[in-house]
Every structure is written in structure tokens, then in C-alpha cells.
Amino acid sequence: xxxxxxxxxxxxxxxxxxxxxxxxxxxxxxxxxxxxxxxxxxxxxxxxxxxxxxxxxxxxxxxxxxxxxxxxxxxxxxxxxxxxxxxxxxxxxxxxxxxxxxxxxxxxxxxxxxxxxxxxxxxxxxxxxxxxxxxxxxxxxxxxxxxxxxxxxxxxxxxxxxxxxxxxxxxxxxxxxxxxxxxxxxxxxxxxxxxxxxxxxxxxxxxxxxxxxxxxxxxxxxxxxxxxxxxxxxxxxxxxxxxxxxxxxxxxxxxxxxxxxxxxxxxxxxxxxxxxxxxxxxxxxxxxxxxxxxxxxxxxxxxxxxxxxxxxxxxxxxxxxxxxxxxxxxxxxxxxxxxxxxxxxxxxxxxxxxxxxxxxxxxxxxxxxxxxxxxxxxxxxxxxxxxxxxxxxxxxxxxxxxxxxxxxxxxxxxxxxxxxxxxxxxxxxxxxxxxxxxxxxxxxxxxxxxxxxxxxxxxxxxxxxxxxxxxxxxxxxxxxxxxxxxxxxxxxxxxxxxxxxxxxxxxxxxxxxxxxxxxxxxxxxxxxxxxxxxxxxxxxxxxxxxxxxxxxxxxxxxxxxxxxxxxxxxxxxxxxxxxxxxxxxxxxxxxxxx
Amino acid sequence: xxxxxxxxxxxxxxxxxxxxxxxxxxxxxxxxxxxxxxxxxxxxxxxxxxxxxxxxxxxxxxxxxxxxxxxxxxxxxxxxxxxxxxxxxxxxxxxxxxxxxxxxxxxxxxxxxxxxxxxxxxxxxxxxxxxxxxxxxxxxxxxxxxxxxxxxxxxxxxxxxxxxxxxxxxxxxxxxxxxxxxxxxxxxxxxxxxxxxxxxxxxxxxxxxxxxxxxxxxxxxxxxxxxxxxxxxxxxxxxxxxxxxxxxxxxxxxxxxxxxxxxxxxxxxxxxxxxxxxxxxxxxxxxxxxxxxxxxxxxxxxxxxxxxxxxxxxxxxxxxxxxxxxxxxxxxxxxxxxxxxxxxxxxxxxxxxxx
Lengths: 594, 355
Known about the structure:
By secondary structure, chain A is of the alpha/beta class. Chain A is 55% helix and 11% strand.
């Protein structure tokens, strides 16, 4: 799904929202403008969560700590040292960026719930640190922070600050939505759902997560800088775990799939807290705590009833414009020099892999030549999957060599192998169901392209992006899915999902495509379509290796078969030779049949 | 630091650690059975301590209001569901189970509070009163999300903590409670002086751990809990209802939280919000055990207790910072040592937070 304003409805809404915000200073009083200023500050933090949680699937309860680092850095710099606020901003960004990089390096490899739990731990630890460091005023915090001024213009009033903070927020939203629509943005969006797929695409999941994490921390630190100079005092209570959870609540209420969600969520939560602050004291003396109760209950309700937040609900109501069908002309992506037909592409020599006492793959050797379709077959437990994992870099061999395009690749990781020209599909289809077919296939071209975060955010990547989209469209057409290019991948039936995976693999411009049990679970007609596609690919010169279970499917399709049983290669040859081989018949049908 | 101080700190640390062991066991229990990281566990602990304190001061404990509120919401949800599914025969059962049962201890407490009651009766009442909290929270907050990803359940748990601890302030007020010591006896072994209170903590911890072990290995209920923990679908196919085992796990957790609250109340002053930090430290211990192994979680909890005790001696202002920062290297170690277990299911987690 493109996060750009792609429908006329949301474009009109966006223009309307900007017009209202521009008119606000003329219509509203100081109190309302103060609230709006805070909303913009908090929205910056929530924006980081849209990137990190909504797109990247990294849940953090600790963003308030980065807000605090940004705020304390400039507060200390401008009061204790007497420096300029803009140097304070640099210090804050640097401090929170480094902190995030260190914390991220330590924790971002953690799976599942461990990562968000660690954010609670360091969130609390950092906040305690603020409250106990004497240099930062211990529990009293730091007061008398000077206001910002731009040139000779002081930004002390809510009104003048408004003109500074909202354009800044708008700029951040624009850059972020650009980023999400770029090469690295697609990679971040692909993170949710596990590492096996992203690694096979040449994306280093750890690096991508770390970048998203640091970016979110930088946004929070920027917000902290604004917060310190607007509030003019900072104290550790503002950056505790509760604050961290409020930011998550903001992002979730607004909707983490859309940059506007951050602003909507920040607005709702801030206004609600404000309303509660004036209303709750009427019924209780402990209003701040009851506020936590109400917010907690609201959070649970949102998670139970509307996990995707408000913005997607609003977008659903707005009239939609049909997505652009025609792609702009673009220079084609550079292609790999093809290997001459018949030359050795992949050669496996004496490959052995042991799991404890079990020898899963035992001295297996075979060769794949350019331009052929080779099948790797064998009954259950023959070691096909292990061999497959060894070849694709998911496991490393105990003995033996794997040579691919003349280089020894036995110990290379999956995300490096794809750059060398080895693309794969998965037995259990791994797609990103919420992304369009086009975006799913464009992911395949990640390893062939170069644009980084900065180019993506600044839209310097447009010509390369056009080429990527054109390439993705070409591969979709190749597998016959071009008519559905703008639909979500999750809506496809299994057979078409397999074809989509093939298109994604082709988008990497591979020298060799390895298909992992592509026929598993397919109906007869779907198998037929897949077989036709593979034949068409061969005629186009693509080399394909099939790891398959389904004998009928393989035998009618491949040039050559390698048969495995109990970890050993028992036969190799043309389908006709192999099916006459007594050992193969024995492996498949039992001794009597042979 | 000389040996005497070191020993004293160790003793203190192990006593704290023993509490964390109980809490950690409860957290692991709930997690493996329901996949919920039960953050409000510590809050129930605080409720138990505050309840015992209220009994001692002859006041009506605010916990009854919490149980009452939760019972009304939960039975309301059940009745609503019965009506919507047009199964009116379920209404009576729903009201009985989710309102009647929890209100029994409430009624008892209302009858007895304010009178002079002996310490064991007060403890028993306290436990009876906090017992329904866990299952009711489960019904209200987690059961509607039974199939949600762990991360969503975690976010709900964190939000629930804020709601529950906010209500604790509302019901009990901001002042702290430290209940009477169960015993003033001391045990002397050579130079070592062990207060009776510490011994009570040790023995309770030991007894509870043994009971849990027997429950899991020798009873059908315990085995059904373990079965659900190992494979939810498999357990379901064997006729074990995940909703029932879930409620059971929360019931046990409530009991563990109650016991921990009662034995910790005479040792430290507890406030309405003290439970969270206790829970979090126990949690740091449980993570050492990877959230799945009971013995490792217990060992981890003891380590956290010791770490805290020595950190407090070294620099009390940074005690908490030290304990929570310790989680980071522990997590790193775990992620390196058990990397294959942490790899998330591909695809399954994709639609997690949002789609």
C-alpha cells in the first residue's frame, strides 16, 4: 500500500487540514494555541512510532526516554553552560542517536516480546538516571531554560512558537512519508513478519531495524528539544514509563499505518487529558491517577475494538480515486551479464551437515548448469530441506564446498547470496499481505538498487524508483499477475501467491532461481499454470532449481533430476533414467517394487 | 565492605530474591499458559499488602471496590454475550460465576472488617479477596483478545497495569503500609542472625514452589496447564479449553501475588504503586530463565535480589538503574545463546500491530 496521499479524498482532507491549521493562530486564543503546540511536539514522538512500530513492527514503551535525552541535553547546555539552543539541539540529537544505537545494537536482535520488554527496562533506567543525576538537578529537574529564538525573533509566546513547530512537524511528516515510499521504506515495511524473507531479499534486517530505531529516537529527541524550550522547565516525571505508554497510545489511536495517525492520535490524547484535567478534579482529589485509569481503559478498548486506529477508518469513508495504472517511462535497471548456456553455475562438492549424531546431508555433490531446469527430489526426511538451507545460506555446512558463479559461497549469509545472483521462493509462502503486489515484487529488486534513507526521504531516488516500479511491473506481467498490480498481496489465492513469489525472485535479476516445493498445496490448474511459467522461464534462459515432493510435477518439467534418500545422493540423470533406477524405485515404493 | 556486611547484604538480597521468586513463578506460569506477560501481577501484590494493612487498622479494604467493579464489568460482558448469542440459559451461570463467586469474599470482608480479627484470619481474608482479581482481569482484558499476537497482549497488560494501579491510589490513598511482623523471633547460627520474618519468607517460598511442582506433575489440572503451555492447539484438540486453563493460570497467579504481598508487607513499606517495580524486577529474573523455565526463573530472581542488595550498598540512588540496566546484558546473552528460539514465525507476525 502506498502511504502517499494517493486518493483525491485524502488529498482534499490534507489540504483542508493544512488550511485550518494555517488559520488557527488568527482564530484561537493563547490557551488553545499552547495546546496545539504541545500536540505538535508529541506528534513528532508519535511519528517516530509510526515509522518504527507501524511500519517496522518494533514496539517501544521507552520513547519518552529519548524525549527526555533531547530535553535534558539542551536544558543543561543552555542553563549550566549558557550555550546556544541550536547547539543544544545538536547535542541532544547526538546523545539520543548514540544511546539508541547502543541500545538498539544490544536489543534489536531480540525476537517477539523480549524487545518491547527491554524498552520498558531501559526506559525506566534512563528516567531514574535523570531523577538521580545531580548535574541534571536530580528530582527538581532544570528550570529557567531560555526560549528559542530564530535570528532576532524570540519564540516565547505560544503564537510565535506555533509558526515554528507546526511547519517543522509538517516537514517531518513529508520526509517520513517520502521515506516510507522508498526503497529503504519498503524494507522497513517488510520487517514485520520475520527475518527469513527479508534476508533472502538482500536486506540486512538488523541494520534496517537499527536505522528505524535510531530515526525514531532522533524524532523524539527533536521533540524533546522543542519541549524543553517551550515548557522552559524539565523534570524526570515527564519522561517516565507512563509518558512512554501515552506516546504508544497516541500512535495506536491515530493509526500506526499512516503518518497522519501520529497527529490525530497526539491531538486526541492531549485534548482528552486536558479535558480530564478540568473535569476529574470535580469528582475526585486524585485526578491525575484516575486519568491513568481512563487512559489505560481506553488503550485496552482501542486494542480490542480498533487495533488499526482512527485514520484507516476515516480513509475508508473518503471517496477513493483509482490508483494510477500507467507507469511512467523509466530507464531499465542494469542487468547481470548472463552466464553462457551450459556453463557451470552452481556446483556442490562433498557437502555434509550433521545435527548431533544425525548426518542430515552426507557427502552430496551435484552441479547446476546455466539454462537448465534441475529437480532435487527425495522422500520425506531425505535431507532436501537441509541441503536447500545450505545452498541458500540459511545454514552453513560442516564439510564440503558450494561454488556459485566460480566463487566459494559456503559460508555466506542469505542476504549476501542474493546479491551474487541467487534468488529463492518459500515452501510456506512468505509475502507481505498488506503491501500491494507491485510493492512485494519491488522488494525483490532491493539488492539491485542503492538509494539509502536520506535519498529516499529527500526524493532524490525518483528515477531509480521509477525503474524499480517498471521492473516490478515487467516481472508481474511475466507471471501473468499484471492486472492485479495494485491489489494487496493478501487477497490472492495460494496459486497466485506462489506466482507472485516467483515474480519477486525474478525481480532480483538472479542467475539461479531456487523454488522450494512450489507445487505444495496447489490445485491441478494452479500447478499447470506454474509449470507453464517455469517452462516459459527456461525458454527465456533462466536457470531454475526445484526442490520438490510432487513427482508428477517434477518429471514432466525438468531436464535433470538429483534424487536423495537418507541424506545421500542415490541417483542423478534425466527423468527417464532416474525413474528406471532401482534404487529410486526402492526409496519411493519400498524394496518389493524394485 | 567486610565479610560481615557482605553476608548481611547477601541475606537481605536472598530474602528479596525469594519474593521475586514467587512473583517470577507467577509471571512465567501466566505467560506459558496464556502468552500474556502479566504486568499487573505486582499491582495485585500491592493490593494484597494494602488489604492486610487495612485489616490491621480496622478499615474496610479498598480492594472490595476493585473486585466489585471488575465483577460488574465481567458479568456484564458475559450477560451481553449470552443475550447476543441468544442463549438466555447462560445468563444465570454467567452471573453466578463472574459476580456471585467473586462477591463471596467481598461479603465476608464487609461482615468482618472493622472487628478485631486474628492475624491468620486477616491473612486468609486477604488471600480470598485478591484471588478473584486475576481471573476477572483475564475475562475483561485478555479473553476478548485470546488469538491476538503476544505484542498486543503485552500492550494490553501494560495499559491494564496503569488502570489497576491508578485505581489502587483511588481506593487506598497515597499513604504507605507496613504491617505487623508475623514473628519477632530470631535464629542465631554462629555469627549469623536470621530474623524470623526472613525465615517465613524462605519457607513460604519453598512450600509454594513445592506445591506448584506437585500440582504440575501429579494433578490433571496441572497437567492440562502444562499441555496448554506446550501446545495450545494440541491441548484444545484433547478437550482442554484454553479459556478455562487461562482463567486457572490467572487464578493461580492471583494466589501467588496474594501470598507474596502478605509476606512482603511486614518487611517493607508498600505504596499503591510499589507492586509494579517489584513485578518488573521479578520479571528481570524471569527473563534470565527465558520466561519458560521455572527453576531458571527462580535462580534469576535470586540473582536480581542479590544484585539489588549489593547495588543499594554501593550507591542507593542508582539501585534501580543498576537492576534495570542489568537486563540489557542479560537479554543480549539470551539472544546470542538462544538465537534460534527467538526467531519469530515468518508471516504469522506480519499483521501484528497493524495491517
